[in-house]
Hints:
This protein is 32% helix and 17% strand. With 173 residues, the chain is an alpha/beta fold. It has one domain (6-43, 62-153): 3-Layer(aba) Sandwich (Rossmann fold). It has a six-stranded parallel β-sheet with strand order 3-2-4-5-1-6, sandwiched between helices. Bound molecules: adenosine-5'-triphosphate and magnesium ion.
Amino acid sequence: MAKGLFVIYTGNGKGKTTAALGMAVRALGHGYPVTVIQFIKGNAHCGEHNLTGPFAGLLQFHVTGKGFTWKSENLDEDIALARTAWEMAARTIAEDKARLLILDELTYLIRYKMVDEDEILSAITGRPAKMNIVVTGRHASDKLIAAADLVTEMTEIKHPYQQGIPAQKGVDF
Ligand code: ATP
Ligand code: MG
């Protein structure tokens, strides 16, 4: 009997979103519906958004907002966007259609106090029995980590950025 897990990929090294998308590929290969909600970066150029063919019907991507950040000049608008994005996540959990739900960069909503942490925690811990939820992002909070079944911290040992190599298509997006 499958048990839906709460998984966190955190840390400063590269690979958090990539690991989550790797799980998505596995789930899709078994015919499971997957929903991905991307909270912070509104990058429309990501290769994963362009998938077509038999898996496309099982995979839903929501790139929320306009890539809002905590550096923004309009914090109220950012908080409203974060709130709307979180409500979409809460709805997806309640609807119980996705077998895998990826909440990409959700950690920042908690870190910058854009959405109430306890509200997020209670929705995630109250998820449907078979739903796997993956949260990515740096600085996962202590409470989030305490509630998770699986936590992996990506540790940066080397990154091409250190050699001045910029983000590349098919590697970073
Ligand atoms: P990826 O999406 O490649 O799995 P990630 O989810 O672990 O990366 P994010 O913090 O979401 O990391 O950053 C996304 C972008 O920043 C990617 O283009 C990635 O290559 C780049 N990046 C990730 N880690 C580092 C790092 N330690 N130094 C510089 N750039 C990084
Ligand atoms: Mg990421």
